[in-house]
Amino acid sequence: VWRSGVRQLEKFNLALLGIWCWRMLVDRDGLWFRVLAARSGVGE
């Protein structure tokens, strides 16, 4: 029974990651983009 819960959690996490990726592509002035760009060295 708990396996179906884990699978649903995996789907939820994947969907959330997709939303964050989309948001980073669309909103380059947003806080998340600036934080992740600074951490990963993008734009140096």
UniProtKB/TrEMBL annotation:
Report the GO molecular function annotations.
kinase activity
Which keywords does this Swiss-Prot/TrEMBL entry list? Kinase, Receptor, Transferase
Protein name in UniProt:
Receptor-like kinase
Q: Which organism is it from?
A: Trifolium medium
